[in-house]
Design a protein that fits this description.
- This protein is of the alpha/beta class.
- It folds into three domains: 14-113, NAD(P)-binding Rossmann-like Domain (Rossmann fold); 120-328, Mur-like, catalytic domain (UDP-N-acetylmuramoyl-L-alanine:D-glutamate ligase, 3-Layer(aba) Sandwich), CATH 3.40.1190.10; 338-486, Protein-Tyrosine Phosphatase, Chain A.
- The chain has 15 helices and 23 strands.
- The strands form four sheets. A ten-stranded mixed β-sheet has the order 8-7-9-6-12-13-14-15-16-17, with helices on both faces. A six-stranded mixed β-sheet has the order 18-19-23-20-21-22, sandwiched between helices.
- Strand 18 (338-343) and strand 19 (346-351) form a beta hairpin.
- The longest helix has 16 residues, at 300-315.
Amino acid sequence: MADDNGNVLTDIEPGSIRHVHLVGVAGTGMGSFAGMLKAKGYEVTGSDENVYPPMSDMLAAWGVGVMTPYAPENIDRAKPDLVIIGNVIRRVNVEATAVRERGIPQISFPAAFGSLVLAGRHSVVVTGTHGKTTVSALLSHVLVSAGTDPTFLVGGVTLNYDGNFRVGAGPYVVVEGDEYDTAYFDKGPKFMHYRAQTAMLTSVEFDHADIYRDLAHYESAFDRFASTLPEDGFLAVAASYPNAVAIAQRSSRAFVATYAVAGDADYRVERLQFAPEGARFVIREPRGHAGEFLLPMSGRHNVENALGVYAVVRSLGLSADEVREGFRTFRGVKRRQEVRDEVDGVLVIDDFAHHPTAVRETIGAIRLRYPDRRLWAVFEPRSNTSRRNIHQALYSTAFDAAHAVSIRVPEPHDKVPLDEQLDVAKVVAALRAKGIDANASRDVPELVALVADAARPGDAVLVMSNGSFGGFIPSLLDALRHRSSRA
């Protein structure tokens, strides 16, 4: 059906579409969706301003034709039945303009996913402020391991499948439900298009300050999502976030189950222990004890998220033993506590953490997994929220479990006024007052040199950023190798 914008669709009959063109195809989500559509049998093309490896290589391997740069002629050459517009595309984009002028049906990525992938399937949506990618990947792997042959689309590269999507023939589709907006013509949260029948709400803390005014405005998005679940649906929610439980209980018609590592909940953990191979724990559920589980990850937050996955897949009919095997064989997600290399005795770990809670939990998880190593936390506040001073006090305590801290001073950003920017110098001063060796610089090579010169054999360097951090990790590894060769 078309909305007030004329050629903008909110729903599609899958059988009416043969050729799909994606504007903004080089983004992680859009590129993977292009590959998924190709695997489902559609003719697929795309365009972007620039296309670089690894996405350019993946698109080529999937057989997706890519045109650069943006140009009206790309639309004329492709002659698509449907154009999917990525959320980075503005109304003034020349291809977006050409699509409107030519009256070609256009749709947002989430709405297209809802129509072309989720129609007639059982949608399992993972949402919340923290942990969505890892949880979606773990949930998907448990379903694959149990032989249900699911389809999934997650926001990171799953190490079990060397990709972030899978097209299966089974009834379940797992999707990471993002609360960020959708397209220039569709400013609602992405997850509103995902037709959830089963869902998991990991956490609710203020985020995305560029589009949400305050916590109440942010929470309202999750209220809207919870209200979409049907009466025969299932919603697992983390009891450690009372506001998330309140949202679920007031807004969802579906059955609500709570889970928590500590405290009162329907699904709980007992005898939790951490070791280099991961976390071992016993699950107590409404049916009783489910025995011991091994999760090859560290951190209480990861165990709690796994408990939520357990609740969800049990509601789908999996046995405790099927879940146990899925947990045991999960290899994780790239850039989520990912060990990149160990050079000259220095272990370098890559993680996507950027919200202060995620920073704190990730540092704590690495300390649990490597208790005998000195931990050096290196952080780039890059997201629109982490650049702002709304979490100034939280960042001053998020690094407390680290032995040393280096922070990149963000480059000026046109969306963040000067008086709203995170004061990195104040964070550093607060850490030094606690006896933590802390420093900061705007210059990435300077930070690389500082860490490479001072890191000792036996250290763990945890690098946290939701971007490339100016190539910090490969530069650090090169510097450590050069140091080792001189020794």
